[in-house]
Amino acid sequence: MTNDTLSDLVVRLKNAQGAGRTEFVVPHTNQSMALLQLLQREGYVAGLTKEEATPQDTIRVRFADNRPQPFRLLRRVSTPGQRVYRGYRDLMRPLSGYGIAVVSTPKGFLTDREARREKLGGEVICLVA
Question: What is the pLDDT of residues 24-40, one digit of tens each?
């Protein structure tokens, strides 16, 4: 088990894509599930299934079929050693607006567009394009 579950999830997403997998399994945490649900809502991930297991529950993630390479950019911004916080006016626009920045706000994980619309700042978790 890792201490930084979101970095672990980002690395597993990149590795699964690099290996050409259509689906893979990650350990279940509430933060991982929230981030994956946001990626599913944005169209980067096609399906999520929570599977009950004895030591720890898992999440089976399936990539979208319509994208040969789901992620052009997938990078963790805020880490446990260096947190990155931004106000809604200063949020990043990955690839000039073609990607999304995932922001942890008081209302949960939001994309940079949703955070700007609701005028909420927070911790920038990762960049996705």
Answer: 999 999 999 999 999 99
pLDDT value of residue 70: 82
Q: Which token pair is 83?
A: 């947190």
Could you tell me how many residues make up the chain? 129
For residue 31, give the nearest of 5, 55, 2, 58 by alpha carbon. 5
Environment class of 99 (CB within 10 Å of its CB; exposed 0-12, middle 13-18, buried 19+): buried
At 28, the amino acid letter reads H
In the three-class reduction of DSSP (H, G, I as helix; E, B as strand; rest coil), residue 99 is classed as coil
**What span, in angstroms and rounded, lies between the C-alpha atoms of 127 and 129?**
7
Contact 64, 46 (CB under 8 A): yes
State pLDDT tens for residues 37-96.
999 999 999 999 999 988 999 999 999 876 667 889 999 999 999 999 999 999 999 999
